[in-house]
Request: fold
Amino acid sequence: MKKHWWHQATIYQIYPRSFMDSNGDGIGDLKGIISKLDYLEKLGITAIWLSPVYQSPMDDNGYDISDYQAIASIFGDMADMDRLLAEAKARGIRIIMDLVVNHTSDEHAWFIEARENPASPKRDYYIWRDQPNHLQSTFSGSAWQYDEASGQYYLHLFSKRQPDLNWENAELRSKIYDMMNFWIDKGIGGFRMDVIDLIGKLPDQEITGNGPKLHTYLKEMHQATFGQHDLLTVGETWGATPAIARQYSKPDNEELSMVFQFEHIGLQHQPDAPKWVYRDHLDVPALKAIFTKWQTELTLGQGWNSLFWNNHDLPRVLSIWGNDSQYREKSAKALAILLHLMRGTPYIYQGEEIGMTNYPFESLDQVNDIESLNYAKEALANGADAQDILDSIRKVGRDNARTPMQWTAKAQAGFTTGQAWLPVNPNHDTINVQAALADPDSIFYTYQKLVALRKEQSWLVDADFTLLETTDQVFAYIRKDQTDRYLVVANLSDQEQAFPCVEQVAATIISNTDENQVLAQQQLAAWDAFCVKLA
Reply:
């Protein structure tokens, strides 16, 4: 099978509002990102996934785009974007743009014209009906909004200010492909595709994800845009199974490089319950079963995995499944070692590499996220306890990922000279980049080594995956290629765990413990994790 650069890449996600502010307005920007490229080069990452920086009224923090070929003024301008591309390229770093084409902002010129002139061809760029059906918005309530001026309802699977695009319209698809080629011509490294599994929706049948024309559209997109280039394309696909992921990512199908699937993330919530009903512990056996399924059913040549714990929509994994107090550093390293040595392309979310944690929200006044605020409003109206609501937001709310990057112990964590748009986590006085770089045993250097291993060790791409039978809280697997075997072990608990192993070790690859003592005593301490090459 042909190897691509992204098979050995590690991608770093930047949420621009929260990464680095260059002008003191409290909002991160492109010049701020440029100022930290040396840091990212030191970490060793291959590419940056840049959350949206396009022109937007920011109803959903940039995922509501009003002009795909302009930069939001809060982030800078197109000259800054061009400089970011050039400065990143000079350091061997590619830029992956966030492509949001399921919907636009209601301030996009297409929608303004569609609303004002029902006879315009742009009207059919969106989805209008005389009567709503039962489709619900992800952000709560009906997915249909009545437009008084034209007397019809338009579809919005997210905010009412994010009208859904009608992908059945060929002219619309052509305009989207032109826009993608505009960015490809600028030299970007690829696209992360927001909720791409929704573009094939059939609203009258109440089909949203994985509609019957979805893959037809993706093949057309591939042919019209990135198929002529060696670009990384990753689709956000909440409902994907391994079979569906193969359809997206099998090279012969000519669709995408890989998808983000979220089956493991579902373990953060109670089964068949809303997102806000969270589990208070990690079901490790279930996690092992899910990862094993994806590792063994999505094999090289038949598709490709993405590997991630965190992103801008998820709480900090260290606070959900790690131990962010007593074993913060050790559990962060264990989670990293476990994930990064699987087969797939790893993604690091900003701050993950220094062990940033969830924010201790004390009141709803500190919450910014539209999804969290809509949930709170609805839950309060239904008589829920305010503290229970806040507890859910503290645990799984999206703002946990969006608090400012912690650069130093100084005021505002060195993120801004002004007042940050979201409150800075009070633990920045101890958890920050400056402290991490000064400590040779910090989480940062574990991530740095994992990024380097991905580039250097071909077995990480090629080797098969076999889960080992262990006690419930121990996740251990073997990666085996044609010549070598590698053992990866992680104790995902605060307790000691037995780990009997009769294998001889040839070399240590990476560790957060004394792995020789572990193997001699056949006992793992809390959050022990390592990878060894077997003799």
Summary: The first strand starts at residue 11 and ends at 14.
